[in-house]
Design brief:
With 256 residues, this protein is an alpha/beta fold. It contains nine helices and eight strands.
Length: 256
């Protein structure tokens, strides 16, 4: 059965805009046209362009990508702590829905600004917070994350560490991206089942294309893995509804 898909996590890498080497790594080109070509068989209805460590605080690439992708697509940006409120508002108008803290690879603000910047972008433009972090660090972060208005974590938390902390945060409303199965070091099916049981609205599918630095790239069989782990009845929410709601995508969005 074909399901509508909202891709809650992918990257656009356009060499027309600045790229920053991260630990000696520069990603290959992956333009809007490349993305469209790779996902045309998936029934993508919209999605989220997520800024990577290699893009630093450049927002021009993101605004351009959202303009090219058109209706149904929004963005997640690496925002500097000193960004003026007026620029936060401008980015929100362009379709940016969240600030990302890349604690795993860098290229964003660090943990010292997590609470202050997250609170500010939420107040100024109703943006939420996204974390690229290994679950190993969640025990130290839990008191701060519990204070954030809305937050999501990438790639199932990367590892199986601190599962109890992760599930407590999920029960409290944190969302988790069902992404990056080729980069995590955990039992994907088991993690999916545990998170879904804790909160059926938590999991949000994403392709993670072009899967930079992953041991293996995204494949359509990753969707089959979700179906096998959770059952076909869970797919409309995980593949489509949860992501659209969290990113406030029009009439299908609900209060989160």
């Amino acid at each position: 059965m074909m399901h509508a898909v909202f891709d809650s996590h992918f990257h656009i890498i356009d060499p027309r805009f600045p790229l920053i080497s991260n630990n000696g790594y520069l990603p290959p080109e992956f333009t809007v046209d490349h993305y469209r070509s790779q996902v045309k068989v998936l029934g993508i209805s919209g999605g989220v362009v997520v800024s990577g460590s290699f893009q630093g605080f450049d927002q021009n690439y993101l605004v351009n990508a959202l303009s090219e992708l058109g209706s149904g697509f929004v963005g997640v940006a690496n925002l500097p702590a000193d960004i003026p409120d007026s620029e936060i508002e401008e980015l929100a108008f362009a379709g940016v829905r969240a600030a990302r803290f890349n604690l795993y690879r860098g290229g964003s603000e660090g943990i010292s600004e997590l609470l202050r910047l997250s609170t500010r972008v939420a107040a100024v433009a109703d943006m939420h917070t996204e974390l690229y972090v290994d679950a190993t660090d969640l025990d130290a972060l839990e008191p701060t994350l519990a204070q954030l208005p809305r937050v999501s974590i990438d790639h199932l938390g990367m590892s199986g560490a601190n599962r109890g902390v992760l599930l407590r945060l999920v029960e409290g409303g944190m969302r988790v991206k069902a992404t990056g199965f080729g980069r995590v070091t955990l039992d994907v099916a088991e993690a999916l089942r545990a998170i879904h049981a804790a909160n059926p609205t938590a999991l949000m599918f994403g392709s993670d294309l072009p899967s930079t630095r992953a041991r293996r790239p995204f494949a359509a069989t990753d969707i089959s893995l979700i179906a096998d782990a959770l059952g076909e009845s869970a797919l409309p929410a995980v593949l489509h509804e949860n992501g659209r709601s969290f990113y406030r995508m029009g009439s299908e969005a609900a209060d989160t």
